[in-house]
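Hi X.,

You mentioned you wanted examples for the new student's onboarding notes, showing what a folding record looks like when two proteins sit in one file. Here is a clean example. The first protein comes first, with its sequence line followed by its structure tokens.
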Amino acid sequence: MLRRVNLSPPPPPPGGVRIGRLSLDTDGWRTRWDDLEVSLTLTEFGIVKMLASAPRMVFTRDAIIDRIHGPGFALTDRTIDSHVRNLRAKFAALGAADVIETRAGVGYQMGPCRGGSA
């Protein structure tokens, strides 16, 4: 006899966000890919949280800097690129290459978070 397995993802935690296989506990500052906790820096978590808050929106690098650090904070656009590169490496190690998408000449957007390639 075969048993049916519930393939729907669990709901996000209270105060959290779920997109595909990615879940964020925004109150507890925790990030999970399926059942695996992903260790992120404060800035990395802020970037993922921001992108996940409006998954269809494309955020410019300046908007990311302003939202995470406040207006007028002295960071270059390339600093955000570096954080995104680190995030992609952390998620790629878990088979999740589609978490953050680049919109050429504009900025970054949340990906589908299904675990495929970007």
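Then the second protein repeats the pattern, sequence line and then tokens:
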Amino acid sequence: MKKILCTASLAIALSVNPGAAYAQSSISRFLQEIAVQVLSEMATEAAKQTLINITRPIPQISTFTDREWLVTIKQSGDDLIYTGVNIKSRDSIMLRGVRVSSSSDRRVFTWNNGAYRYQVAQRPSDPQFVRLQVFDGRGKELLNRKLEKVNR
């Protein structure tokens, strides 16, 4: 009974914050199986999205480009590392500490660098493309590019 309550609490917490589902790699296989079962029985949209996130993990590494920007997202434990390169200028940046949010039609991965916010949005229905956006500290959009996956 204690395990079920603990797992139900985990499932509810994940359904309230679907982005927390990305931390699934630190959940034991047993708890994950129970969480999937509990989430399957819940009728909320957040529970459904969390279930999708748990059952469709992010690839170990993905690279996207539009011939001006090259973005690689690499899994490192419970985190995703963002590496962005401007192909023309050779300027680059590496960011850690991803925040994940999701809705029924997209996942949004967000990293912060000081006052700047880097976002990569992906529709699970169209995994070949991502939307890269960069915002300044006031929320002004500085960059908005559609990038295509580089097949390796």
